[in-house]
Design brief:
With 97 residues, the protein is α+β, with helices and mostly antiparallel strands. The protein has three helices and two strands; from the N terminus they run H-H-H-E-E.
Length: 97
Amino acid sequence: MLRVMSRRRFTEKQRLALVDKFERSGTSAAAFCRKHRLTYQSFLRWRREATEQAEPAPEFVEIEVPRPSPGPRAETVELTFPSGLVLRIEQQPAPRS
């Protein structure tokens, strides 16, 4: 005998709550879906949509780097992104002729 699962409808608030609960669960998405009787593909779509809403598209930001002061020292500019990525730009002094 085949069991036919009835289709449940979730509000956006319920979907976001389930995605949040999953993020804190420490289990795989497949195990979480089995436990909560969710359709795996639908749940993956909910996660993707929640991520897209939470993370705005990256923007370019113009930065101005101050001119190095006179002297033979190197200047370093360092940018640290929320992901932990660090971009370090080092300017070596120009060789003197």
